[in-house]
Amino acid sequence: MPNPTPADIENLIELFNRSDWDEMHLKTDTLEIFLSNDPQARRPGQQVAAPVALAAAPAAVAASPAASPVAAAAAPAAKGAHEVVVPAGMVAVRAPNLGTFYRSPKPGAPAYVEVGQTITADTEVCLIEVMKLFTPVKAGVAGTVREICVADGTMVEYEQVLVIVEPAA
Q1: 112-131: pLDDT as tens digits
Q2: Which is nearest to 162 in space by CA: 144, 146, 150?
Q3: Does 74 or 98 have the greater pLDDT score?
Q4: Which pLDDT score, from 0 to 100, does residue 2 have?
Q5: Per-residue pLDDT band at 42 (split at 50, 70, 90)
Q6: What pLDDT score was predicted for residue 60?
Q7: What is the rounded CA–CA span in Å between residue 44 and residue 29?
Q8: What is the pLDDT of residues 4-23, one digit of tens each?
Q9: How far, in Å, are 31, 73, 75, 80, 154 from residue 4 at the CA level?
């Protein structure tokens, strides 16, 4: 699968959704895709050291209690474009799957959160949409929003930093 398009990736996700598979892992020279029905699953070789990723992962099943998979896609050579440095003491809310980032529930509606806003762990900070499946992303930590790292309507990757939160003391 040289240089897969977003449509190719969406087709793989759709195939996975229709299957009875628990997990799927595909790796090429330029792309790695890991799909799982378990929100706690980690792609092969990934370290489980970031509590932020675990806090954000349950949001991937919030859209559909039945079986909404966590989709992971990482392009090893694509570092830099989406790399965000999280300041010491801050917590990153990360994308639970790849898709399109939306700051509000519908066009013209107020954003879920704004910089400077105090939030709880259960506050929805955005939506991630892939193939008309909208996954609400919860903060996973109480505190104050310090930065929104992604522009509305932008395609995001799995584990990409979406929002930076200063945890409540």
Answers
A1: 999 999 999 999 999 999 88
A2: 150
A3: 98
A4: 59
A5: low
A6: 33
A7: 16
A8: 777 777 777 877 777 777 77
A9: 8, 12, 11, 20, 18
Q: Which domains does the chain have, with CATH numbers?
A: 6-167 (2.40.50.100)
Answer whether 90's CB lies under 8 Å from 149's CB.
Answer: no
- Asked if 139 and 163 count as a contact pair (C-beta separation under 8 A), the reply is yes
Q: In the numeric block, which tokens belong to residue 81?
A: 């474009």
